[in-house]
């Protein structure tokens, strides 16, 4: 299993600073979830790990800095499921999942039989083998999300990044997608870093929550420690009740103060 | 059953390559058989057979007639094939790296730059250059086209940020306008050459010689090989810059190499044929609609289909040459647009 460490990481867009000196260590096999209001820097942090945006400071995988790696080697270590993946409508599912093998194919050659077998194998494990020749444009939202996750798994990277993996899904498909990620994490010993808006789901699936606010890390810990009404009120500006279920689940529910009579 | 997926895709690709190859052979043969002067059409294939080693056929083609076929028809047909192939594969490659179905090989200013270069030759002294050993017209067009693209790149790089491709396209628009403005200025001051320049801009293959073929052949072969080598990478780029980066592709470098290669090839063919529009958009699109949108199929099949398309599109221009030959650029647009609509309709009926 693989660890992921941030050492004083900053991200700037021109004069705006999206992330201010973030430091943290994601332990091997841990699922860490970044939470925080819109614009807090969750996506910026994930995108800087992938190498899509530049960052200062260093991001280390198993102790060695990512910036020293070639783009292919980096892709062998880190798989990324973006917030709104681009799904070319007339590409088939098997072609799409095969793209996950790209980090193992040298630029000017083609995929080997092993790569094709690997892609099919992933589809079978996710019960998607019947979709292999379907075009991406014909898939439903839940199916699309599973296909994107399938591509990330085909990448065989020890670190999996998920940016808002459930934002476009209904409650049933949200659960299905996150259960899938959790199953794969256990089977393959993956280290998972996700960004999520749904605080209850974030607390339910991850081992640790990191609360970001205006580019600063303002809280880190278990769901019980981070998801507190006063913390959420301060950083999200929201009125919530937090329930603690007997099984340890922390449920965050917004409420309205009807007596104040606004709206 | 699923295991055969790999083979199915490869077989599909080869099926289309062979089919378009057969069409190209037919188009080339048809092109050499048709023409206002020269031998009766059916004698040409016999004569061609006769010229193969170990085969002897009495075709009844005289030496003079053969000269017409060899010196006039064949270079023209081969040149049309090379130009069509280059414009089509470049168009497909541009559409791939910019992920925009509407871009064509003229996007970054090649056409306007080449037009300006050619206009300069016409306005300075065209008559004085006809006796030169090397015709300066294609050279000026080539240099003009490359200069324009270089300028586009410098401007794009100077003002570009993360979203380099948008800036590049906008820089292309600016450079195109600038070159066109210069060209208009020159034409205003030399109205006597307007007609010549105009006919060059509309494109022509009528003056094709084996020399033209030799001039562009290395560029067409070189550029096509480099572009074909990128076919798998172009498939990865279909998921966008961010995801392609996450999948381990150095996106900016790949885009730069593909664009430079496609531009170099385009500039070379534009230099000898003038600006033949529409081919770089219509052929790759037709291929996508018929054979699927994977660049592993689109690039090689566009190359071959583009060659056939331009050979066939050149035929009406050769027959309808009274009083003046119809410019090939007009023919490609005239036949291309309905052809495209037909394919769209076929596709709609099938799905």
Summarize the structure.
The complex is a heterodimer of chains A (263) and B (351). With 263 residues, chain A is an alpha/beta fold.
In words, what does this structure look like?
The complex is a heterodimer of chains A (263) and B (351). With 263 residues, chain A is of the alpha/beta class. Chain A has a single domain (4-260), classed as Rossmann fold (3-Layer(aba) Sandwich). Chain A contains nine helices and twelve strands. Chain A has helices at 42-50, 71-77, 93-98, 113-125, 141-154, 171-188, 199-205, 223-226, 229-236, and strands at 4-13, 16-26, 31-35, 56-61, 64-65, 78-81, 159-163, 191-195, 208-213, 216-221, 240-244, 250-254. In chain A, the strands form three sheets. Chain A has a six-stranded mixed β-sheet, with helices on both faces. In chain A, strands 2-1-4-5 form a four-stranded antiparallel β-sheet, with helices on one face. In chain A, strands 11-12 form a two-stranded antiparallel sheet. In chain A, α4 crosses α5 (141-154) and α5 (141-154) runs parallel beside α6 (171-188). The radius of gyration of chain A is 19 Å and the shape is globular. Chain A starts with a strand and ends in a 9-residue tail after the last strand. By secondary structure, chain B is an all-alpha fold. Chain B has a single domain, classed as Orthogonal Bundle (ABC transporter involved in vitamin B12 uptake, BtuC). Chain B is built from 14 helices and no strands. The interface between A and B is large, with 45 and 28 residues.
Radius of gyration of chain A: 19 Å
Q: Compute the number of helices of chain A.
A: 9
Strand content of chain A: 25-35%
Q: Give me the CATH architecture of chain A, please.
A: 3-Layer(aba) Sandwich
User: What is the CATH homologous superfamily assignment of chain A?
Assistant: P-loop containing nucleotide triphosphate hydrolases
Net shape of chain B? globular
Query: What is the top-level CATH class of chain A?
Result: Alpha Beta
Detail the poorly predicted runs of chain A: none
Ends apart, CA distance between termini of chain A = 51 Å
Total strand segments of chain B: 0
The chain pair forming the largest interface, with residue counts per chain, is: A-B, 45 and 28 residues
Helix count of chain B equals: 14
Name of the level-1 CATH class of chain B: Mainly Alpha
The domain count of chain B comes to 1
Shape of chain A: globular
Return the structural class of chain A: alpha/beta
Any idea what the CATH superfamily of chain B is called?
A: ABC transporter involved in vitamin B12 uptake, BtuC
Terminal CA distance of chain B: 25 Å
């Amino acid at each position: 299993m693989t660890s992921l460490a941030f050492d004083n990481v900053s991200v700037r867009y021109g004069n705006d600073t999206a992330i201010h000196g973030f430091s943290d260590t994601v332990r091997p096999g841990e699922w860490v979830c970044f939470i925080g209001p819109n614009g807090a820097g969750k996506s910026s942090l994930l995108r800087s790990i992938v190498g899509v945006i530049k960052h200062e400071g260093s991001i280390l995988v198993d102790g060695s800095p990512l910036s020293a790696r070639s783009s292919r080697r980096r892709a062998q270590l880190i798989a990324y499921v973006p917030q709104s993946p681009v799904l070319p409508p007339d590409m088939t599912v098997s072609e799409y999942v095969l793209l996950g093998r790209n980090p193992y194919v040298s630029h000017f050659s083609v995929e080997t039989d092993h790569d094709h077998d690997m892609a099919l194998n992933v589809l079978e494990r996710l019960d998607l083998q019947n979709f292999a020749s379907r075009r991406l444009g014909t898939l439903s939202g839940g199916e699309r999300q599973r296909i994107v996750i399938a591509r990330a798994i085909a990448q065989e990277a020890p670190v999996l990044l998920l940016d808002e993996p459930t934002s476009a899904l209904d409650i049933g498909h949200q659960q299905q997608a996150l259960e899938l990620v959790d199953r794969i994490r256990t089977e393959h010993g993956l280290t998972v870093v996700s960004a999520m808006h749904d605080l209850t789901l974030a607390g339910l699936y991850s081992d640790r929550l990191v609360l970001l606010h205006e580019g600063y890390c303002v809280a880190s810990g278990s769901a019980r420690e981070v998801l507190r009404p006063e913390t959420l009120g301060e950083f999200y500006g929201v009125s919530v009740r937090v329930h603690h279920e007997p099984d340890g689940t922390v449920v965050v529910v917004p409420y309205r103060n009807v007596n104040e009579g606004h709206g | 059953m699923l295991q055969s997926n790999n083979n199915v895709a490869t077989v599909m690709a080869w099926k289309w390559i062979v089919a378009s190859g057969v069409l190209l052979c037919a188009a080339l043969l048809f092109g050499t058989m048709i023409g206002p002067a020269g031998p009766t059409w059916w004698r040409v294939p016999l004569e061609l057979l006769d010229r193969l080693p170990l085969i002897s056929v009495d075709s009844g083609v005289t030496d003079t007639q053969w000269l017409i076929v060899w010196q006039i028809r064949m270079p023209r047909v081969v040149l049309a094939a090379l130009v069509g192939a280059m414009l089509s594969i470049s168009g497909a490659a541009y559409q791939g790296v910019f992920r925009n179905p509407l871009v064509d090989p003229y996007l970054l200013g090649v056409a306007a730059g080449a037009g300006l270069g050619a206009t300069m030759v016409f306005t300075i002294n065209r008559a004085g250059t006809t006796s030169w050993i090397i015709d300066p017209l294609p050279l000026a067009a080539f240099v003009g086209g490359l200069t324009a693209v270089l300028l586009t790149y410098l401007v794009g790089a100077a003002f570009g940020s993360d979203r380099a491709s948008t800036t590049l396209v906008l820089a292309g628009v600016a450079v195109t306008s600038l070159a066109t403005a210069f060209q208009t200025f020159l034409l205003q001051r030399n109205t006597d050459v307007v007609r010549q320049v105009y006919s060059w801009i509309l494109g022509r293959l009528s003056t094709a010689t084996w020399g033209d073929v030799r001039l562009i052949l290395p560029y067409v072969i070189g550029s096509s090989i480099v572009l074909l080598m990128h076919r798998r990478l172009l498939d990865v780029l279909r998921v966008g810059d961010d995801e392609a980066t996450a999948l381990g592709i150095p996106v900016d470098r790949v885009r730069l190499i593909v664009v430079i290669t496609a531009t170099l090839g385009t500039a070379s063919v534009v230099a000898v044929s003038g600006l033949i529009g529409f081919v770089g958009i219509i052929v790759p699109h037709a291929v996508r609609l018929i054979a699927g949108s994977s660049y592993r199929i689109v690039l090689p099949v566009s190359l071959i289909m583009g060659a056939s398309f331009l050979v066939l599109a050149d035929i009406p221009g050769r027959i309808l040459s009274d009083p003046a030959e119809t410019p090939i650029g007009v023919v490609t647009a005239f036949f291309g647009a309905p052809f495209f609509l037909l394919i769209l309709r076929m596709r709609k009926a099938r799905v």
